[in-house]
Design a protein that fits this description.
- With 279 residues, this protein is α/β, with parallel strands linked by helices.
- It is built from ten helices and twelve strands.
- It has helices spanning 20-40, 65-79, 122-128, 139-142, 145-148, 151-158, 173-184, 203-219, 233-245, 260-264; strands at residues 6-7, 57-60, 88-94, 103-105, 110-113, 116-119, 134-136, 162-168, 189-194, 199-201, 252-259, 270-278.
- Helix 1 (20-40) crosses helix 2 and helix 2 runs parallel beside helix 6.
- The relative contact order is 0.20.
Length: 279
Amino acid sequence: MRGGAIRRPAVAGLFYSADADALRAEIGRCFTEAAARARRSSGVATETAGGATAPKAIVVPHAGYVYSGPVAASAYGRLAVGRAAIRRVLLLGPAHRVPVRGLALSGAEQWLTPLGPVPVDTGAVRALAELPGVMVDDWAHLQEHSLEVQVPFLQTVLGRFSLVPVAVGDASDRKVAAVIDTVWDDPATVVVVSTDLSHYMTYEQAAQVDARTAAAVVAGDPAAIGDYDACGCRPLRGLLEAVAHDPGRRPVELLDLRSSGDTTGDRDRVVGYGAFAVV
């Protein structure tokens, strides 16, 4: 399926508010809660150093905002210092709805949210479509939430930017890293990887598994992240491989690590959420 001019939101009103004013308020509450947690926390780095530039990449969860929005906000707050410099976002997340062999680009010219349209960098899409295992397939994006829920946050912290949305299916770490490598040296491009962590474990089990996954991310060890440790394991491992390609070997910083048991109080079957920054 070749995309039309506009990719319309599929989960507005479900994962986040469909009303623009209510959505702005909802995102504002996420940032307020993230800032409050940063002040309370002593064991997780959350503050941006004075004069620091924006991260080269962030990793954020993609559940409904009531569940994971404040965790995501801890990473998006770090991008705010790059508002004047960041002009493009390479956004990668797992394909939940449609089986994808490789990586699926969006053929749309714009992505619409309740906050307005975001232009797609169609030139970058055409270039990436030449890579092995990469294709344009809008069926993969039609109902997919993992990418969509990130766009209102990006609109809030960046203002004007272009988007390169990539739904990652059955793709090797090497092929994902090859896509990221194409933009890694561009100072005007930030990489955003969308993934949740463990799924449907008890609160105690999830805490153990997610702590191990977070340690692997910070250590830059993609081989230590299993297929069931994160729903976006493939884009996450691909990012870590791209980080390893960087001669400067940028460090990966843990910003927040929680689960739905922390955000909702229901600890029987939880989903894990983590936020990280490649600084």
